[in-house]
Design brief:
GO terms for molecular function: deaminase activity; hydrolase activity, acting on carbon-nitrogen (but not peptide) bonds, in cyclic amidines; metal ion binding; S-methyl-5-thioadenosine phosphorylase activity. InterPro entries: Amidohydro-rel, Metal-dep_hydrolase_composite, Metal_Hydrolase, MTA/SAH_deaminase, MTAP, Nucleoside_phosphorylase_d, Nucleoside_phosphorylase_sf. Keywords: Glycosyltransferase, Hydrolase, Metal-binding, Purine salvage, Transferase, Zinc. The chain has 24 helices and 28 strands. The chain is an alpha/beta fold and 750 residues long. The strands form five sheets. Strands 1, 2, 3, 4, 5, 6, 7, 8, 9, 10 and 11 form an eleven-stranded mixed beta sheet that branches. Helix 9 crosses helix 24 and helix 12 packs parallel to helix 13.
Length: 750
């Protein structure tokens, strides 16, 4: 054993992190006595002998651990009100501790801070007698936790995927007993969590100039806040929370192991603790088990009743939603960390809602973002896009572009998309790889490409793709996607429709996007690139209706130029429309009469179109624009209200794709395709109506977490299935290739 002040000159050069915890941490492999060196420190201020444990993490960092209830050499155990705080903190100072991480068990005085929640309080309230090291003028200071140290700990935890509560007031009670209900009613006016030791440690650490921060875990709902509090339940929950707090401490230690110099740049701060250390020999089993429970401030269901549920949780098992219930009930029903197989995510400032469905896009065209702006559709396609595609598009182009687009989708809250592009098999590969849900389109177009030489080969390859991928994953389905009536012959459109019906797939095409497309077809001007490829002089929709192609599986993107009588026929056929407002405006295609279409009973979804014509894949932008543009076109402020716009971006997209029984709303039995949107930003305060904010105030950068089929694809803005670091280099490579092709091509695409 060593005494007094440290381990010699070699250790004096090291950074030292102090860790104060209860006996639970001592049971952890990280702090096992056989892996640490015991030091007994004779405190210079006369506060007795203190037992510390030292361990070398690497050449630059040591940790010094103290079990607060057993640090006094003269006692086997000290209850909270008798812990030798002055001796403990003085000993930490003497051995050269640069900062202190205090790990504490606390009770929650807020329903939304449930059992198992990690909390890093930013202030404390102590109605008890406060200790001081000096009993003289040196005790004058401004107390508090160290903000810089808190930030480092929060950063480490957020990067690891944990979602600790940032901030809150820790209330210090006296102990050793729990508080009465009356005491909790009083103290809950002063703070969010309650413990018995933290304020004393924080105060003494501040006096001694040691930066101090508390990492607390909720092991019980305070007396009167939840169900009847019992010691047995407290011990059981504390025992079951042990793996979570151990993991959090492990994450923080690894962070400082990598960046020990951070601890030398701090200035000084405080902590908390647990009431008792014993745990039952046989922990209680949870009543029910699921894979994950996600708690949120609000749950926007987008169900038939359009419910918005406050302080609710969504329980997930085997990729499906098995429960939607109040957060407190979820803690009781699912045990709140009573099983190591159940993950609990708490998002106290966020809204949970269905994932957005981008019902019309061209994913690989992200590589043409900003490539050709400020042109009408005909010139944009025939002079820039098609000539470049003929010379550029390949399997690798589509694979790389789809991966970049899927990263943008996920970060923007899109969980499902319907695509139309060449080499759809490559897009299918990326859907499987990234975990998103998608409908690659079996493309058909009238001119040859690197993918196929003509319509027959397009259809043949599409059939093979659909058959090869059949049943591989529920997330991957297909649509039959002939480009348009002006790029595909009448005969081949009929063949494509027959194949769609054979496989029971959506029929996805562009229709009535521009006036020229409609007018040239009515005149029968076959010299025009935008006249439909049939001998009839009629509007394109008329010919599709006459051929029986327009049915309940028919999905038309755009439909900007549609007449009132056509709307009635289209509605009678049960077909769907995908509204792409940004692309239509940017290409000056016109204004889709969305309100008229909706009033006729037609299902309207929303799409971004490709990033080449939109410049982004932002479905939040499309929702807002769809709502406000409809009001201007209809000259009616009630046109497309926020609730309708949200449905268009979620459940209506699912209806168009034939999967509304699986996704598009948050309902028990459906797949857990959902996103969390953080409303803590100042731009979303105050919040009177959550759905209004989602449509009119929020942006895609507020999406924090994304799940598809119960699997988390993004946590705390960090992509979990895509290496974002590689995407920039890949995009730069394709930018150079496209720029070179553009500078050399002769303007032809056939």
């Amino acid at each position: 054993m060593a005494s007094a002040g440290g381990n010699g000159e070699e250790d004096a050069r090291k950074v030292v992190l102090g860790v104060i915890g209860g006996s639970g941490l001592l049971k952890s492999a990280m702090f096992a006595p056989e892996t640490m060196k015991e030091e007994v420190v004779e405190t210079e201020a006369g506060f007795g002998k203190i037992k510390l444990m030292r361990k070398e993490l690497n050449e630059e960092l040591d940790i010094v651990f103290a079990q607060r209830h057993a640090c006094d050499v003269e006692k086997d155990y000290s209850p909270p009100h008798l812990v030798n705080f002055r001796g403990l903190l003085s000993a930490m100072k003497q051995v050269g501790v640069n900062a202190i991480l205090a790990v504490c068990s606390v009770g929650s005085m807020r329903h939304h801070i449930g059992m198992g929640a990690l909390v890093l309080p930013d202030d404390f309230f102590c109605p008890q007698h406060i200790l001081t090291t000096f009993d003289d003028a040196r005790g004058h200071n401004v107390p508090g936790f160290n903000d810089a140290l808190r930030t480092e700990i929060l950063t480490a935890l957020f990067r690891s995927g944990e979602r600790p509560l940032d901030g809150g007031v820790y209330v210090n009670s006296n102990g050793p007993r729990f508080e009465t209900k009356a005491e909790i009613r009083f103290m809950s006016q002063c703070g969010e969590i309650i413990g018995m030791t933290g304020a004393h440690e924080a105060t003494l650490a501040k006096e001694l100039g040691i930066p101090y921060a508390m990492l607390a875990i909720v092991d019980n709902m305070a007396n009167g806040i939840g169900p009847q509090l019992t010691l047995e339940e407290f011990f059981a929950v504390q025992h079951k929370n042990q793996p979570k707090i151990e993991n959090a401490v492990h994450v923080v230690l690894n962070h400082f192991k990598a960046y020990p110099e951070v601890l030398l740049s701090l200035d000084g701060d405080g902590a908390d603790a647990s009431a008792d250390d014993k745990a039952p020999s046989t922990p209680a089993s949870p009543k029910e088990v699921c894979d994950e429970v996600v708690h949120a401030k609000s749950v926007v269901t987008v169900d038939a009743e359009e419910r918005v549920l406050e302080n609710h949780a969504v329980a997930i098992k085997d990729g499906k939603i098995v429960d939607i219930l109040p957060s407190h009930d979820a803690d009781v029903k699912y045990g709140a960390f009573s099983s190591t197989t159940t993950k609990v995510v708490r998002l106290p400032d966020s809204v949970l809602m269905p994932g957005l469905i981008n019902a019309h896009t061209h994913t690989p065209m992200v590589f043409m973002r900003g490539f050709s702006d400020d042109l009408p559709l005909d010139k944009w396609l025939t002079e820039k896009i098609w000539p470049t595609e003929v010379r550029t598009v390949s399997k690798d182009f589509v694979r790389d572009g789809s991966r970049l687009a899927c990263a943008e989708f996920i970060r923007g809250g899109v969980t499902c998309f319907s695509d139309m592009y060449f080499f759809p098999e490559s897009t299918a590969e990326i859907i499987e790889e990234t975990g998103i849900r998608g409908f690659p389109g079996s493309i058909v177009i009238g001119f040859p490409s690197n993918y196929a030489q003509g319509p027959a080969e397009y259809l043949e390859k599409g059939r093979k793709m659909i058959e090869d991928y059949s049943g591989r994953t529920d997330r991957l389905k297909f649509c039959v996607a002939p480009h348009s009536t002006y790029a595909v012959s009448e005969e081949d459109l009929i063949k494509a429709h027959k194949m769609a019906r054979e496989f029971n797939l959506p029929f996805h095409t562009h229709l009535h996007e521009t006036e020229r497309e409609v007018d040239d077809s009515e005149r029968g001007d076959r010299s025009s690139s935008f006249c439909h490829q049939c001998d009839k002089k009629c509007r394109p929709l008329r010919n599709l209706l006459d051929n029986g192609i327009v049915d309940e599986h028919f999905v038309a993107a755009h439909m900007v130029h549609i007449k009132d009588d056509e709307i009635k026929e289209y509605a009678a056929a049960g077909a769907h429309v995908v509204h792409c407002p940004t692309s239509n405006l940017k290409l000056a295609s016109g204004f889709c009469p969305v309100q008229k279409i909706v009033d006729a009973g037609i299902n309207v979804a929303i799409g971004t179109d490709g990033a080449s014509s939109n410049n982004s894949l932002d479905m939040f932008q499309e929702m807002k624009l769809a709502a406000i543009m409809a009001k201007g076109v209809a000259k009616e402020p009630c046109a497309i209200p926020a609730t309708q716009a949200l449905r268009m971006a979620t459940i209506n997209g699912a209806k168009a794709l034939g999967i509304a029984d699986q996704v598009g709303s948050l309902e028990v039995g459906k797949q857990a395709d959902m996103i969390a949107v953080d409303l803590s930003d100042l731009s979303c305060l105050p919040t009177y109506h959550v759905v209004s904010h989602l449509v009119y105030a929020c942006n895609r950068h507020q999406v924090s977490d994304v799940w598809v089929q119960g699997k988390c694809l993004m946590r705390s803005r960090q992509l979990l299935t895509i290496d974002a670091g590689k995407l920039r280099r890949v995009a730069e490579k394709w930018q150079a290739i496209i720029a070179e092709v553009d500078s050399n091509h002769d303007g032809t695409y056939q």
